[in-house]
Amino acid sequence: MEMITKMVMERPVVIYSKSSCCMSHTIKTLLCDFGANPAVYELDEISRGREIEQALLRIGCSPAVPAVFIGGELVGGANEIMSLHLNGSLIPMLKRAGALWV
Question: Of which family is this protein a member (predicted)?
Answer without folding.
Answer: Belongs to the glutaredoxin family. CC-type subfamily.
